Amino acid sequence: MAGQEHSPGAGEGADVPEALRAALVRLAADVLADIEPARTPPSLVAVRRFAPRRRAAAGALPLWAALRDDPEFRARVGRAWVENHEAAGGAAAPTDGPVAALDDAVGAWLRHLPWEHLVPPSDPGADDGAAARRLEGAEREVARLRTELAAARDGERAARDELAGLQRELRRLRSDADRARSEARALAAAAEKDAERAAADLAAAADERALAAADLRAVAAERAAVRDEARTGQRLAETRVRLLLDTVVDAASGLRAELALPPVRDLPADLVAPPEVAPHPRPSSRGRSVDDPVLLDDLLRLPRAHLLVDGYNVSKTGWPHTTLVDQRRLLVDGMAALAAQTGAEVTCCFDGQPGLRPVAAVRGVRVLFTAGETADDLLRRLVAAEPAGRVLVVATSDREVVHDVEGAGAWAVPSATLVERLRRR
């Protein structure tokens, strides 16, 4: 029956009329435009590039061959025919006329249904002419296909020869690749050993560099310390010389004032036969007791005099019942007033103790705290640093300190003398 399914290929061995074939090719050309490029049959890739108007005419043979030999493409075209008829009102709707009959034959052929009775009859004369033209065209197509077959066979032989050459080249390249991989593995192993040796050498060089840098820093620090010590020694020597010179000059001026020397009125020529003049002795402060505060004033008023105070020795003598902080404050304040009155340089030395708050600097008074030594040792070093001939007065009741500073040329006065002098200011 007309609606019964036939097995695939039923009725396809018969000659398909030209009109039905042309209708099928046109429908296939329209469907080809909607197929994704990745799912396009290989034989129709070139046809898909044609312009839509030329696709059915220029690609008729590939399209017909795909319809006949590619079931997937034929099924896709059949689904497109069914969708078109369902959109137009159903594929089972009755149709009239040759065009409708031809369209039904297209659908029947695509769905493997009997289609011969659906093809409209044609004029026998026209069919004979069309058959003759088709035969002539088929003969030309056969000749063209034979030519293409010969060319394809030649191409196949050339491709086979080229494939054989490529296979030989591939085997050679594989052999070279195996040899290169073996050499690369050997080179990688050697490079790894070289890298290990280089890393060890680098670590050793880094250690040597660190040692050299440490030695360089030590040498630089030692050099800086020596340079600082040399500069300090030079400055100390220059200061001592300058201070000694100023002391000598000021002492000469003070001696001139103390002796009340008159200005020079006689020239050497006038004194060839000087008259005898009885000497007039001047009183002086020499021979006074060190317990006399007036002697302390006389010493401190001498040019460039320097008073060095044993801090806690004096403060505990003057203010024994107060705290150390108050003792330092009272002593430093009194020494500032004494320095302002006499113009002498004043230095107070205190034993350094952990946790003690340093005394604020007072104008005219140098306050020193010991570090790693006693105030007695600091006093001895200060006296030793002064140039010979400068007036140095050390206020302390420590007998050992008194003995040492007097041996170095300094005056020593008891702590009580200084306290008494401070109390009568």
UniProtKB/TrEMBL annotation:
<dbReference type="Pfam" id="PF05991">
    <property type="entry name" value="NYN_YacP"/>
</dbReference>
<protein>
    <submittedName>
        <fullName>NYN domain-containing protein</fullName>
    </submittedName>
</protein>
<keyword id="KW-0175">Coiled coil</keyword>
<feature type="coiled-coil region">
    <location>
        <begin position="135"/>
        <end position="208"/>
    </location>
</feature>
<dbReference type="InterPro" id="IPR010298">
    <property type="entry name" value="YacP-like"/>
</dbReference>
